[in-house]
Amino acid sequence: MPTLHGVSTVLLDIEGTICPISFVKEVLYPYALTHAPQILTAQWDHPALLPYLTKFPPSVRSSPSTLVDYITILSASDVKDPALKALQGYLWRTGYETGAVRTPLFDDVVPKLQIWKAASKRLIIFSSGSVEAQKLFFGYVEGAGDLNPLFAANYDTVNAGPKMVKESYMRIAGELGVKSAEVLFLSDNVNEIRAALEAGMQALVVDRPGNAPLTEADRQELSIINSLDEVEFGN
């Protein structure tokens, strides 16, 4: 892997990049669906839940059971719906706060993030999960505790835009006040990587165990790493 130059900011995806996809699909998603009936029924009229409910169409939030049926369909289709993502964060909070859920990160992640932070790199998260869910995710990391202080900002598809269009990455760079070329984006998704490259960012595909296989064309076109330890910064 060649040395990367001029990078002031590292923009990170989560699922399949710094955390196993299996945790999200086999732990977090099922937890939300399993506990949704109980939590929604108990808190249906609670003011804290109302902002999450109003993000959904009125026709699917007439009752807890109606909403559960709707989010079950969305989850099964892996739809990146902002309302669903926000509600998932609300539901996951119970799991994290009770200790039922803890976030596993790949072994290379925490040491490398700490090194980059100490080297004055700005660390930013961009995920399809809501900002609230991101902060929960990083607030309860196995063996590391709360990692949120490492990150200067969090972006999702609401405050940045879709992850597969270049405008979202241009918006992030603009809000951060940096040139796109100063940003290194790391993701397992080749279409996100291409969008970031089109926006003028530097970008690397992170190929982790359990991720979708990369095509030969992807391997020819894009720069690929298997660990954050492979990233080297120059001046």
From TrEMBL:
Catalytic activity: 5-methylsulfanyl-2,3-dioxopentyl phosphate + H2O = 1,2-dihydroxy-5-(methylsulfanyl)pent-1-en-3-one + phosphate
Class in the EC hierarchy, top level: hydrolase
Cofactor(s) the protein requires to work: Mg(2+)
Gene: UTR4
Alphabetized SUPFAM superfamilies for the sequence: HAD-like (SSF56784)
Cofactor: how bound: Binds 1 Mg(2+) ion per subunit.
EC number: 3.1.3.77
Name this protein carries in UniProt: Enolase-phosphatase E1
Chain positions recorded as substrate binding sites: 127-128, 163
Keywords: Amino-acid biosynthesis, Cytoplasm, Hydrolase, Magnesium, Metal-binding, Methionine biosynthesis, Nucleus
One Gene Ontology cellular component annotation held by this UniProt entry: cytoplasm
Binding site for Mg(2+): 13, 15, 188
Entry's family note: Belongs to the HAD-like hydrolase superfamily. MasA/MtnC family.
Pfam families named in the record: Hydrolase (PF00702)
Pathway where it operates: Amino-acid biosynthesis; L-methionine biosynthesis via salvage pathway; L-methionine from S-methyl-5-thio-alpha-D-ribose 1-phosphate: step 3/6; Amino-acid biosynthesis; L-methionine biosynthesis via salvage pathway; L-methionine from S-methyl-5-thio-alpha-D-ribose 1-phosphate: step 4/6
GO molecular function, one term: acireductone synthase activity
Claim: Transmembrane helix is one of the keywords in the record: no
Function comment: Bifunctional enzyme that catalyzes the enolization of 2,3-diketo-5-methylthiopentyl-1-phosphate (DK-MTP-1-P) into the intermediate 2-hydroxy-3-keto-5-methylthiopentenyl-1-phosphate (HK-MTPenyl-1-P), which is then dephosphorylated to form the acireductone 1,2-dihydroxy-3-keto-5-methylthiopentene (DHK-MTPene).
Main subcellular localisation: cytoplasm
Complex formation: Monomer.
Localization: Cytoplasm; Nucleus
GO biological process: L-methionine salvage from methylthioadenosine
